[in-house]
Write a structure and sequence with these properties.
By secondary structure, the chain is an alpha/beta fold. It has 7 helices and 7 strands; from the N terminus they run βαβααββαββαβαα. The chain has one domain: Alpha-Beta Complex (Maf protein). It has helices at 12-21, 34-38, 46-63, 90-100, 136-146, 174-178, 182-191; strands spanning 5-7, 26-27, 69-79, 82-84, 104-115, 118-131, 167-171. Strands 1, 2, 3, 4, 5, 6 and 7 form a 7-stranded mixed beta sheet that branches. α4 (90-100) packs across α5. The longest helix has 18 residues, at 46-63.
Length: 197
């Protein structure tokens, strides 16, 4: 491995994916105003928004680390045409889950590689998650188990935990669901010389 990589995130699931894949990196979380980045993206497809946010996160960290290759990533959820952000409270998480119940949630996950001021690569993937009908009793049980851990997740779930019980079917790969299109990313890291080809 001839080049180093910086992950512009503190996401446990993204770190776990890179660790499991044998990718060496340093983690420096990005500090950006996501709503400000989205200004001017009204009407853009969800995948475009996720990709723009991934690029912005990587660019913010790259600006402070000249010459470094920086990986940014972002995920967003759309259900019935409505976009959802991370729940700000347990009550809001419950509201989200009641809205998702019996519906299909679209999860868009994007990644970008930025060096200095240039985006070297970016990609977005989609997963479609079919939620089963959730009873109020189950939602309360689930929130007792998972709140506040799911407060930092879009969709109010961790697929690697009890959140898997929310779904009846999933279309798409597990990496996209976990928050990063890992297989295309690994290909890009090989092209960049971070991984052995």
């Amino acid at each position: 491995m001839s080049k180093s990589l910086i992950l512009a995130s503190k996401s446990a699931s993204r770190r776990a994916m890179l660790d499991a894949a044998g990718v060496a990196y340093e983690s420096i979380p990005a500090d950006i105003d996501e709503r400000e980045v989205e200004t001017g993206l009204e009407g853009a497809a969800p995948a475009e928004v996720a990709e723009a946010l991934a690029v912005a996160k990587a660019a913010a960290v790259a600006a402070l680390n000249p010459g470094a290759l920086v990986l940014g990533s972002d995920s967003l959820v759309v259900c019935n045409g409505r976009r959802f952000d991370k729940p700000r409270s347990r009550e809001e998480a419950g509201e989200h889950l009641r809205f998702f119940s019996g519906q299909v949630m679209e999860l868009h996950s994007a990644a970008a590689l930025v060096k200095d001021t240039g985006c070297e690569w970016s990609h977005a993937s989609i997963a479609r998650l079919h939620l089963r009908d959730l009873s109020d009793e189950f939602i309360e049980y689930y929130l007792n188990l998972e709140w506040p851990a799911i407060g930092h997740t879009v969709g109010a779930f961790r697929i690697e935990g009890p959140g898997v019980q929310l779904f009846s079917a999933i279309e798409g790969d597990q990496f996209t669901v976990l928050g990063m299109p890992l297989l295309p990313l690994l290909g890009a890291l090989r092209e960049e010389g971070v991984l052995i080809a």
